[in-house]
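dumping the sequnces here before i forget
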Amino acid sequence: MIEAKGVYLVYGNGTEALKDVNLKIEKGDIVYITGPSGSGKTSLLKLFMGIEYPTKGELKVLDLPIIKEEENNIRKLRRLIGPVFQEFKLIKGRTALENVMLGLRFLNLPHRKIKEESIMALEKVGLGHKRDSLVEHLSFGETQRVAIARAVVRKPAIILADEPTGNLDIDNALNIMKLLTSFRDEDTAVIITTHATHLLEDRVEGKFIKVNNGVIAVESRGEA
Amino acid sequence: MKNFISNLGYFLKEARTIFRIDFLSNVFSIFSIGLVFFILSMVISGWWISKEVVEVLQKEAEINIYFEENLEDLRIYNLMENIKNIKGVREAKLVDREESYRRMEEILDKEARILELFDENPFQPFIEVKIDIEQVDEILEDIKSLEDIDYIRDNKDIIDKLQKIITVLTIVGLLIITATGISTLVVISHIIRQGIYNNRDQINTLKLLGAPDSFIGFPFLLEGLFLTLVGGILAFGLIFFTFKLGYEQIGTALLFVPLPNMEVLVKTIGSFILILSGILGIIGSFFGLSSAKGN
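..and the predicted 3d for all of it:
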């Protein structure tokens, strides 16, 4: 599903964000990418989404090579993944439902199907009753759930969540983790970045990738 | 295409939202575009009216030949025959005093009572000669050489002047069409770029979700089209009222000017402006989108 071989990422200002990354993520995996702020977690996720390209090395996501020259591949890839951005990136002035529908609009589905699927996704995240609310009128937690609904509505092969526990208290953070991992099935992988490693102490299921200074320091697999 | 149709409602709603985000600026743009199109319409109308007037005058090109007073009927007849034989003369007809008087009554219409001030018919008989306008110089030379001619009245100067005006108006018209076209394109592409800038976060999100450029750009294209079409409709309204007023004023002031039918003129110019506004809206939006793409 995702395979990185000797991947480096160097930003335009010379910052070496990732160094010699080698990893493999399979279908149905739950992967936690941990590490302190600035360690390279988000950079890794950006590579997976085709927002950044490897400076060196080989990276394939869903069998599509992540290289700058393959713009169509990147676009195709982005339609196959479900991203939950750290800052959510919901569109203001639109309702929760409209935002979720946006995830499906250009996937060649009939309008009725788009609407039905989006309502179902909102119900799954517990926001069916808020579907007609403008996103700016929702609470932080609700906004985050809308972002999750938009990501999962397209039944993506990979759900990528960047720091979803960011500013949440422990209970809410755990709830969000549970919600995200609930969308994992045998065909869908869930990848979550977080610096809040204490949240993972009780969570033994999944693969743990610890990033430090752009290097994958520890890679381990928890057991259920 | 199926995808496009199922998203039509979304595109229209997005276009409306984009319009509202920069509402005041867009309203001013509509007025600017409307005025630009109005100026264009007036130039085209001026060109059209002049062209039509000249064409009518050319078809009716005639010279009036006044012969010496008390000329015998036979000599008048001979004079007419000689005139008919001149190359370029299409028709020669005697207009007697009564006919002259009647024609003037027709022309003056409600004002014809002014003729009652005369004790007797003030008009002279003359020979009305329809000619081929392109040979007017040669015809005049030949007529001048005939005997019994007192005075020749021709409209050559007026026709020459009108033809010169048409040439100038055509050149000016083309320049103004080019200038207004470019202005509209610049205004529209600038508005689109502005709209893209104002919605950059949304566009960025759509890109991250994998939306194709056509999906992202179409609402902006609709916005551009809407702005120019509303500008075009505004111009159409202005044209209608200006012509209505103008025809009422000019029509009575210049009875001798054969103006084209107002309804036909308004409909033709209006349709042209609306089609042009649509085309310029689409082209301007494409310019705006393609110039913003790199950013």
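The first helix of chain B runs from residue 2 to 6.
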